[in-house]
Amino acid sequence: MAYFKNIGKIKFEGRNSDNPLSFKYYNAQQIVAGKTMAEHFKFAVAYWHTFCGLGIDPFGFATQFYPWNQAKDFKTKAFHKADAAFEFLDKIGFDYLCFHDFDLIEEGPTQLESEKRLETISDYILDHLEESHKKVLWGTANCFSNPIYMNGAATNPDFSVVARVGAQLKMALDITIKLGGENYVFWGGREGYMSLLNTDVSKELDHLGILLTMAKDYARKQGFRGTFFIEPKPMEPMKHQYDFDASTTIGFIKKYGLEKDFKLNIEINHATLAQHSFDHELAIATSENMLGSIDANRGDDQNGWDTDQFPNNINELTRTMLIILQAGGFQGGGINFDAKLRRNSTDLEDLFHAHIGGADVFARALLIADSILQNGQYQKHREQRYASFDTKEGRKFRAKELVLEDLYAIATSNPPPKSISGKQEMLENLINRFI
Ligand code: XUL
Ligand code: CO
User: Fold this and answer.
1) pLDDT value at residue 304
2) Which of 24, 95, 166, 435 has minimal CB crowding within 10 Å?
3) Number of CB atoms found within 10 A of residue 81's CB
């Protein structure tokens, strides 16, 4: 069945086109900095927001009555959703999907029943994938919606729940591998606490480390060669989540010896919830060679919630594309639009406007960042700022060949340091000149 009957394949028409259902900047096959735009971005559609979303918020019922969600029985609904997903991917022209296990089909009353259901729907999705040549950027397990996880999933104080998480992770890994998933994500929505009064933080963090190690070992045994990503978020739904931000998560990954297999999936709106800028999180991740993938969206400047709006800030994304380009791209991942329509955007074509806008703003940011890097003033300024470490003594310091007494000797035998401008405004102007 076709769901988006009045919409054809979205084409690149350039910035002068008046057609809202066309790309103005995203031209999949256009080469920028040695790669096509499609290769730079690996855009993915988030199954949960785009095909499962209903427009519910804490104060209101569903507003988005998509035709693929109307069947009464869960199986038909799952098949319809899959049809809609592949029609959408074909028309928007992105190569990838991301999903949680229970986005694909409604969770069953028992683990075994859920497994049976997922077996059926994944057979159907596999056929779609093979036919369309579309791919799975990453899969994940929803270990946060079911009430059994209200006290935590891997960090639950009850071992029987931890075992249940293990069973669900095994199932989600099996499905991701079956569907050729290129990566696997862990987002710890319930891994944290509501109150420290009832929480043993040290035990809980250990349990999380042990479970992630088990999941990695199992997937490797099954031949999974992709990368595991942890997606940091500081709070929501818990008061405090353990994977607070990039720095905290990198520390966790290293503490549990997972750095060979795990990288980060950085989400824009999670960065802002942690009171960071997105480029801050990317700079921290790339400084450790840990930028695996990103979840693209944006928050709201005034209220600070996880509003998951589609990205549209060209200045912010130019700064982030500068970091991503200089890092040589992502470690295995791409750009997943973990974003949803506002609940009063109720037309089917709004799904297209949202994804078109997201792809265009990234494409435009890529073109701008590439011109900035080709111009070279930006890199030159940053290099010059650290030029003193290229002197004989500066080099020795970086090579750890000096002791504190050497610094004392250098400092006392030289004139006092001069004041050197950081030139922030000049650099801000440089970025704006290219925008
Ligand atoms: C929640 C969030 C999740 C993860 C996958 O804020 O971002 O959708 O991306 O579980
Ligand atoms: Co996300």
Assistant:
1) 85
2) 435
3) 24
C-alpha to C-alpha distance for 373 and 216, rounded to whole angstroms: 38
Side-chain half-sphere of 389: how many Cα atoms within 13 Å? 9
Residue 180 CB: number of other CB atoms within 10 A? Answer: 13
* Distance from C-alpha of 435 to C-alpha of 165, rounded to nearest angstrom: 47
Q: Measuring CA to CA, which residue among 109, 194, 183, 118 is closest to residue 152?
A: 194
Among 295, 310, 335, 340, name the best residue to mutate to test ligand 1's pocket (greatest count of ligand atoms within 8 A of Cβ): 295
Q: How far apart are CA 158 and CA 150, in angstroms?
A: 11
At 172 the pLDDT is 98
Over range 325-340, report the average pLDDT: 98
Ligand 1 pocket test, candidate residues 267, 272, 294, most atoms within 8 A of CB: 267
Cα–Cα distance, 230 to 293 (Å, whole number): 10
Structure tokens at 434: 């290219």
pLDDT at 269: 97
- In this structure, is the dihedral angle defined by the CA atoms of residues 326, 331, 334 and 335, taken in order, positive or negative? negative
- Would you state the pLDDT for residue 85? 98
Which residue has the CA at smallest separation from atom 10 of ligand 1?
187
Cis bond upstream, residue 237 (ω within 30): yes
- Ligand 1 binding pocket includes 187 (Cβ within 6 Å): yes
Q: In 3-state terms, the chain is what percent helix, strand and coil (to 5)?
A: 50, 10, 40
Encode pLDDT of 18-31 as tens digits: 999 999 999 999 99
Question: Does ligand 1 have an atom closer than 6 angstroms to the CB of 267?
Answer: yes
Q: What is the CA radius of gyration of the chain?
A: 24
pLDDT in tens, 101-148: 999 999 999 999 999 999 999 999 999 999 999 999 999 999 999 999
Q: Could you identify the residue written with the tokens 């994944």?
A: 122
C-alpha 94/C-alpha 354 separation (Å) is 13
Q: Residue 229 is inside which H or E element, if any?
A: strand 227-230
